[in-house]
Amino acid sequence: MNPQINAIDFNERPFIAIWEVTQACDLACVHCRASAQPDRHPMELSTDEGKRLIDQIAALQVPVFVLTGGDPIKRPDLFELIGHARSAGVRVSLTPSATPLLIRDIVIRLKEAGLARLAVSMDGAIAETHDAFRGMTGSFAQTLNAIRWANKIGLPIQINTTFSRRNIAEIDTIAALIESLNITLWSVFFLVPMGRGKLDDLLNADEFEQIFAKIYSLSKTVDFDIKTTEAQHYRRLILQQRVAERKAGAEISVTQDKAADAIGRAPRGLNDGKGFVFISHTGEVFPSGFLPMSAGNIRQQGLNSLYRESALFRSLRDTSKLEGKCGACEFKEICGGSRARAYALTGNPNGEEPCCAYNPKGYVPLPPSVKWASNLHVLQGA
């Protein structure tokens, strides 16, 4: 691992910055946090505002910068923005939607503009599952096409998969399919019930653990990296597994940055607002795309000061404020639980991770009737 990356102080700068360049998208994904719509918002950041934001990202020396949406291809200035980032020394990843807009010529132009990595979504092992997830027939085939086109021109590929009640039965076949592809990183997302994401689709804590065990086992044999998003407690399982393996006398081989284009892996402790910042299409600055609490807007205040000095971000980086079993957990400095999921289910960003099966040593859990009393927050659409 790059020692400079490992030494990042999350109080000073983020490891990951994501800019939602637009909420316009032709898909209608069942889990979409943004409830994206076909048309662009009139108050989107302009090209010049976007370039100023990129300059701030460069000044902060953020290792991982992602352009997302909606569908970024809906922005006609996308290639100009990527080119500006390259000129500023910022490595850019992109998460386009797999629609008819994502054609071979677009993939080629993205690489020519300076894109460092293309991230596409795969939420099923077969077209029927994936297309139902994405709300568009043909999206699965378009995803495979994009991977093939990117492979042909040497553009590194990342695959994002969101697991929920809708596709958990296919986890083994999804993993097998992804293992057969030429990719750099598999990013495994875990549902946060917001936007179009439904509480009924959320997996329970035991199911989270089952997925953790599967991807940990897979991570030891594949040539690509695997990371989780909104499943910070996967780090706890990794440590537990490695301790168990050492006790059993197994040789531990810790492999990181397997990919030739490795941008770097985040240090332990990354969380919403803690090494992570999300800038919306209108310039609002959030701890993540899944935690809709704004610290301010870059049209009025610099990203640097919003990230470093806002009360919201400072509070989220303070693990002494964690409540419930997250506050009592011996793993809280490397994990901390999903602040976004805690907020979605309880309205409290400092509440305990609702989908963690681990009970800290000596901790006495609250009765279920008390623990879940505030579920009405998400059910009422707050």
Q: What is the overall pLDDT average?
A: 90
Which structural class do the helices and strands define? alpha/beta
| Major sheet description | 10 strands, mixed
Annotation field: number of helices: 15
Order of strands in the sheet with most strands: 7-6-5-4-3-2-1-8-9-10
Order of helices and strands: HEHEHEHEHHEHEHEHEEEHHHHHH
What is the total tally of β strands? Answer: 10
Distance between the termini: 40 Å
What is the beta-strand fraction?
5-15%
Percent helix, as a range, is 25-40%
Rg, rounded, reads: 20 Å
Low-confidence stretches: 1-5, 259-264, 372-382
Shape: globular
Q: Care to describe what's here?
A:
With 382 residues, the chain is of the alpha/beta class. 35% of the residues lie in helices and 12% in strands. The protein has 15 helices and ten strands. It has helices at 3-6, 47-60, 78-87, 104-113, 127-134, 139-153, 171-179, 205-219, 234-247, 303-309, 311-316, 324-328, 339-346, 368-371, 376-379, and strands at residues 16-20, 64-68, 92-94, 117-121, 157-163, 185-190, 225-229, 276-279, 284-286, 296-297. It has a ten-stranded mixed sheet. α4 crosses α6. The longest helix is centred in the middle third of the chain and has 15 residues, at 139-153. The radius of gyration is 20 Å and the shape is globular. The relative contact order is 0.12. Mean pLDDT is 90; it is low at 1-5, 259-264 and 372-382.
